Amino acid sequence: MTKFSEILPENFPLNHRNYNELMDRIRNAARGFADLGTAEGRMVDKDLMEVWARLGRTWSLIQEIQDRECRL
Fold first, then answer.
1. How do the pLDDT tens digits run along the chain, 72 residues long?
2. Pick from 59, 63, 66: which is nearest to 20 by CA?
3. Taking the complete model, does pTM exceed 0.85, yes or no?
4. Which of 18, 30, 51, 55 yields a CA-CA distance of 20 to 30 A from 44?
5. How far from 7 is each of 4, 40, 42, 61, CA to CA, in Å?
6. Whole-angstrom Cα distance, residue 66 to residue 52?
7. 4-37 as b/e, with b when 16 or more CB fall inside 10 Å?
8. Phi and psi angles of residue 27, each rounded to the nearest 5 degrees, phi first
9. 2: buried, middle or exposed (CB in 10 Å: 19+, 13-18, 0-12)?
């Protein structure tokens, strides 16, 4: 069993670079739909921003796990 803290950053399934790229892409897509100025666009924007927020929470969880492993 491999600990999160033992994985090299470049081999980590979701490293900082990939996380930032995903966050940017999701936010930009959401803005694009919001900019359509339609109710449907706002609905898609809202859903994408929920995905964006969930990804942020997941990233925080990953960081907490790594921090906890390093303290042990």
1. 999 999 999 999 999 999 999 999 999 999 999 999 999 999 999 999 999 999 999 999 999 999 999 987
2. 59
3. yes
4. 18
5. 6, 42, 39, 16
6. 21
7. beeeeeeeeeeeeeebeeeeeebeebbeebbeee
8. -65, -45
9. exposed
